[in-house]
Structure formats: structure tokens, C-alpha cells
């Protein structure tokens, strides 16, 4: 199974990849770094920075950081075949700026090449960021967009729940207190939750200490289980 890990910068993607790959020690696990701007904090079986480094792209093309990041993804596409590995679980750690992967044509082309059969996206959310109705509604919308853009099943995982008490029922109950146009927008965005796995279950984890990894593994396996949905 290919596991594509996506999420905003600071959500804990790399920490999740590092420790979840250790958790899967009884399987044949491979880890691939797709971020050309950052050295991985784990031992990668394949690293895009072996082929493309954003800091070198800045110098070579005379670009600023944002332009260099986009150019790096474009250049990375030339090496994508070298990044595709086989294993029981192959975990792909995507760039911290997830819009590079989701909204650029080169990032989407990379995802299409990597996402062969048996591919699942894991969308990592920072529990603290998601703890207000407005932020959570926007994250729900992001989740639906990810599913549409990548055209693969997407599992939503709430990270840092060892330090933040994330309560979906409490969040949704607060929606009625969001007033005005913002309240109407937030309420409509929440309708998108039906297009995410959050309607089945909320997966709370700590990427740092491994809390909730059993639930993540179960959800990954249940995505393709003929027994039904991941409820």
C-alpha cells in the first residue's frame, strides 16, 4: 500500500512518518521524502534531495524561495520513477507547503505516478489549529479538496491530541454562535464533512508518542476492505 502523507506546514507530517514507520516494524516498510527543500528527520529509503535541492535551484535559476519551490517540484517530476518503491507499506512524505503538491500541475503529475493501486492519502491536521469552528470548517473544505485533487481515498488524522483536547461535538455545537455572513459560510462548509472520513470516525493521534497509531493502521486497511466502510 502507498501512503501519501499530506498536511499544512507544522502539522507534524515528518514526525508522523518517522514514528509510524517504526510502528510498522513487523512489515516491509519503505519511506520516501518528496520535499526538495528539507532534509528528512528519518532515514529515507529514497530522498528527492538526492536529485533536486531547492537551495541549489534558487542559485541556478536566480529565483526566490517560492519560485524555487515550484521549480523544484517541476524538476522532481523528472526523477519520480526513481522514487517509486515496493513494500507492504510505502510512506511518502510530501512538501511542507502542501499547495505545491496539490495545486501545481507538476505536483499532481507526481501524485498520479506515485498513486498506483492501493494508495491512500493521510491528511494530518494540527489539533490546536483545528480547535475553533472557523478553522475546523476550512480544514474540512481542504480535506474534500484533497480527495478531489488526488483522486484517492483520504483519511483524516488529528495530530497533537496528547496536548490538545479535540472534541468534534463541542466544535459543531459552537457553530450556531458564529454570527453573520461568516456563520453562514462556516455552516455551509461543514456540509463537506460528508465527503471526508470524519463522518465515520475521528482519528486522534500523537505523532510524537505513537498514541492512536493502531487506529490509523486499522483505517488504512479498512479503506480497501470488502467488509464495508471505515466506521
What do these coordinates show?
With 231 residues, the chain is of the alpha/beta class. Helices cover 42% and strands 14% of the residues. The chain contains ten helices and seven strands. A seven-stranded parallel β-sheet has the order 3-2-4-1-5-6-7, sandwiched between helices. Strand 5, helix 7 (133-150) and strand 6 form a beta-alpha-beta unit. The radius of gyration is 18 Å and the shape is globular. The two termini are 20 Å apart. The model has no long low-confidence stretch (mean pLDDT 85).
The beta-strand count equals 7
Broad structural category: alpha/beta
Task: Give the termini distance in whole angstroms.
Answer: 20 Å
Across the major sheet, the strand order is: 3-2-4-1-5-6-7
Tell me the β content: 5-15%
Global shape: globular
List low-confidence stretches: none
- Which sheet architecture does the biggest sheet show? 7 strands, parallel
Tally of individual helices: 10
| Range of helix content | 40-55%
**How confident is the prediction overall: mean pLDDT?**
85
SSE topology string: EHEEHHHEHHEHEHHEH
Radius of gyration: 18 Å
